[in-house]
Description:
The chain is mainly alpha-helical. 68% of the residues lie in helices and 10% in strands. The chain has one domain (3-64, 73-138).
Amino acid sequence: MATTITLKIKDDQGNITKQNHEIEDIDLNQFQQLMETVNEIMKQLKGDESLKGLVGEIFGGNYDPEATPEDMVKEMDTDFMLKAINSFETLLIRLPEQAYKLLSILSGIELSVLQAQKLIDVMDIYDAILEENDIEKLVKRVKKSLVLTGAKLKFKALVQKATEKMQA
């Protein structure tokens, strides 16, 4: 079930049209873009001394700026993702471009359209994203699948190694 929000879009002549947009559960593409953006944020934090304090505020200092999105998923816990999502207000103040990008990804609203909305409406979009996505459930499910995949890949590698030794 999706949450419907109303976007107000102003054209070049100043005419405003209203357009309904449904906020739904995030899909795989959105999740990948989310992880890539979080990784970009981490790299920005690493490279900017004045922003390093943000890491402590948001993530308690637990991050690896060299981690790939896949590594981040493996290491994340529910608390980490909840802090990342709930840190939107802090990101909005310190890294506004990245905050807008995160909202654009999670809402499915084009970045330029999102940036043209009133702040109160953007906060409604943010609330709708949180309502539609059970972040804790999502993180647990992703981690479960990654653990299963890792176990199967390790088993496959062991079988392949044993087969090679038997053939030698």
